[in-house]
Amino acid sequence: MLKRFTVSMEDNLLADFDDFIRDHHYKNRSEALRDLIRGRTIEKEWEADKDVMGVISLVYDHHQHKLQEKVTKLQHGFHNQIISTTHVHMDHHNCLEVIIVRGKTGEVRGLTDSLSALRGVRNASLSMSSTGKDLH
Ligand code: NI
Fold first, then answer.
1. pLDDT (tens digit per residue) in 113-126
2. Are residues 41 and 63 in the same domain?
Protein backbone atom coordinates (compact mmCIF):
# COMPACT_ATOMS: atom_id res chain seq x y z
CA MET A 1 0.00 0.00 0.00
CA LEU A 2 1.30 3.43 -0.93
CA LYS A 3 1.60 5.99 1.85
CA ARG A 4 2.15 9.67 1.33
CA PHE A 5 4.42 11.89 3.33
CA THR A 6 5.77 15.40 2.99
CA VAL A 7 9.49 16.05 2.53
CA SER A 8 11.11 19.38 3.34
CA MET A 9 14.45 20.36 1.90
CA GLU A 10 16.47 23.41 0.91
CA ASP A 11 16.01 24.92 -2.58
CA ASN A 12 19.52 23.96 -3.67
CA LEU A 13 19.16 20.35 -2.55
CA LEU A 14 15.80 20.05 -4.28
CA ALA A 15 17.33 21.50 -7.47
CA ASP A 16 20.04 18.82 -7.27
CA PHE A 17 17.38 16.16 -6.79
CA ASP A 18 15.41 17.40 -9.79
CA ASP A 19 18.61 17.35 -11.89
CA PHE A 20 19.12 13.75 -10.77
CA ILE A 21 15.52 12.90 -11.75
CA ARG A 22 15.98 14.45 -15.20
CA ASP A 23 19.39 12.83 -15.79
CA HIS A 24 18.08 9.38 -14.81
CA HIS A 25 14.78 9.72 -16.70
CA TYR A 26 12.52 9.27 -13.68
CA LYS A 27 8.89 10.16 -14.24
CA ASN A 28 8.48 11.71 -10.80
CA ARG A 29 10.17 12.42 -7.48
CA SER A 30 8.44 9.50 -5.70
CA GLU A 31 9.92 6.85 -8.01
CA ALA A 32 13.36 8.44 -7.78
CA LEU A 33 13.20 8.49 -3.97
CA ARG A 34 12.04 4.85 -3.83
CA ASP A 35 14.99 3.80 -6.01
CA LEU A 36 17.46 5.74 -3.87
CA ILE A 37 16.16 3.94 -0.78
CA ARG A 38 16.36 0.54 -2.54
CA GLY A 39 19.94 1.37 -3.55
CA ARG A 40 20.81 2.09 0.06
CA THR A 41 19.14 -1.19 1.13
CA ILE A 42 21.38 -3.08 -1.31
CA GLU A 43 24.46 -1.29 0.08
CA LYS A 44 23.40 -2.33 3.59
CA GLU A 45 22.99 -5.97 2.50
CA TRP A 46 26.52 -5.89 1.09
CA GLU A 47 27.94 -4.24 4.22
CA ALA A 48 26.25 -6.84 6.44
CA ASP A 49 27.74 -9.80 4.51
CA LYS A 50 24.25 -11.06 3.70
CA ASP A 51 23.28 -13.30 0.80
CA VAL A 52 23.73 -11.07 -2.25
CA MET A 53 23.70 -11.30 -6.03
CA GLY A 54 26.12 -9.71 -8.42
CA VAL A 55 27.65 -9.73 -11.86
CA ILE A 56 31.41 -9.91 -12.39
CA SER A 57 32.65 -8.64 -15.74
CA LEU A 58 36.07 -9.88 -16.71
CA VAL A 59 38.22 -8.79 -19.66
CA TYR A 60 41.39 -10.74 -20.34
CA ASP A 61 43.90 -11.67 -23.00
CA HIS A 62 43.52 -15.38 -23.71
CA HIS A 63 47.05 -15.48 -25.21
CA GLN A 64 48.48 -14.94 -21.73
CA HIS A 65 50.14 -18.25 -20.76
CA LYS A 66 47.79 -20.57 -18.84
CA LEU A 67 45.39 -17.74 -18.02
CA GLN A 68 42.31 -19.44 -19.47
CA GLU A 69 43.13 -22.49 -17.33
CA LYS A 70 43.57 -20.37 -14.18
CA VAL A 71 40.31 -18.50 -14.77
CA THR A 72 38.46 -21.82 -15.13
CA LYS A 73 40.15 -23.36 -12.08
CA LEU A 74 39.30 -20.35 -9.91
CA GLN A 75 35.66 -20.50 -10.98
CA HIS A 76 35.46 -24.21 -10.14
CA GLY A 77 36.61 -23.29 -6.64
CA PHE A 78 33.54 -21.07 -6.40
CA HIS A 79 31.04 -23.46 -8.04
CA ASN A 80 28.59 -22.97 -5.16
CA GLN A 81 28.51 -19.21 -5.78
CA ILE A 82 28.54 -19.13 -9.59
CA ILE A 83 25.17 -19.40 -11.27
CA SER A 84 26.22 -18.84 -14.86
CA THR A 85 29.19 -17.74 -16.96
CA THR A 86 29.02 -16.34 -20.48
CA HIS A 87 32.14 -16.07 -22.60
CA VAL A 88 32.42 -13.66 -25.54
CA HIS A 89 35.42 -13.68 -27.90
CA MET A 90 35.67 -9.92 -28.42
CA ASP A 91 38.57 -9.80 -30.87
CA HIS A 92 41.73 -11.73 -31.73
CA HIS A 93 43.20 -11.24 -28.23
CA ASN A 94 40.48 -10.27 -25.80
CA CYS A 95 37.78 -12.26 -24.09
CA LEU A 96 34.89 -10.97 -22.02
CA GLU A 97 33.39 -13.18 -19.35
CA VAL A 98 30.23 -12.24 -17.51
CA ILE A 99 29.82 -14.25 -14.32
CA ILE A 100 26.52 -14.20 -12.42
CA VAL A 101 27.12 -14.91 -8.74
CA ARG A 102 25.14 -15.43 -5.56
CA GLY A 103 26.68 -15.78 -2.13
CA LYS A 104 28.01 -13.94 0.88
CA THR A 105 29.57 -10.55 0.19
CA GLY A 106 33.00 -11.80 1.26
CA GLU A 107 32.85 -14.79 -1.11
CA VAL A 108 31.74 -12.71 -4.10
CA ARG A 109 34.36 -10.03 -3.42
CA GLY A 110 36.97 -12.75 -2.88
CA LEU A 111 36.28 -14.26 -6.30
CA THR A 112 36.39 -10.84 -7.97
CA ASP A 113 39.70 -9.95 -6.29
CA SER A 114 41.26 -13.32 -7.13
CA LEU A 115 40.29 -12.97 -10.80
CA SER A 116 41.51 -9.37 -10.85
CA ALA A 117 44.92 -10.38 -9.49
CA LEU A 118 45.64 -12.87 -12.31
CA ARG A 119 48.29 -11.72 -14.75
CA GLY A 120 46.70 -10.89 -18.12
CA VAL A 121 43.35 -9.88 -16.64
CA ARG A 122 42.81 -6.34 -17.91
CA ASN A 123 39.70 -5.59 -15.91
CA ALA A 124 37.52 -7.32 -13.32
CA SER A 125 34.58 -5.33 -12.07
CA LEU A 126 31.76 -6.26 -9.75
CA SER A 127 28.23 -4.95 -10.09
CA MET A 128 26.44 -5.36 -6.78
CA SER A 129 22.80 -6.35 -6.76
CA SER A 130 20.30 -8.01 -4.48
CA THR A 131 18.47 -11.31 -4.07
CA GLY A 132 15.38 -9.09 -3.86
CA LYS A 133 14.26 -10.63 -0.55
CA ASP A 134 14.63 -7.37 1.38
CA LEU A 135 13.67 -5.06 -1.50
CA HIS A 136 10.13 -3.76 -1.63
NI1 NI B 1 37.53 -15.88 -25.87
1. 999 999 999 999 99
2. no
| Parent domain of 19 | 11-47
pLDDT at 17: 96
Same domain, 30 and 77: no
Which tens digits make up the pLDDT trace of 73-105? 999 999 999 999 999 999 999 999 999 999 999
Give residue 16 CA to ligand 1 midpoint distance, Å: 43
Distance 60 CA to ligand 1 centre (A): 8
pLDDT, tens digit (0-9, with 9 covering 90-100), for 16-44: 999 999 999 999 999 999 999 999 988 88
Instruction: Order the strands of the 94-104 sheet from edge to edge.
Output: 82-89, 94-104, 51-61, 121-129
Determine the distance separating the centroid of ligand 1 and the alpha carbon of 62, expressed in angstroms. 6
Q: Are residues 30 and 60 in the same domain?
A: no
45 contacts 52 by C-beta, under 8 angstroms: yes
Q: How far is the CA of 114 from the centre of ligand 1 (A)?
A: 19
What spacing in Å lies between the alpha carbon of 28 and ligand 1's midpoint? 43
Contact 96, 87 (CB under 8 A): yes
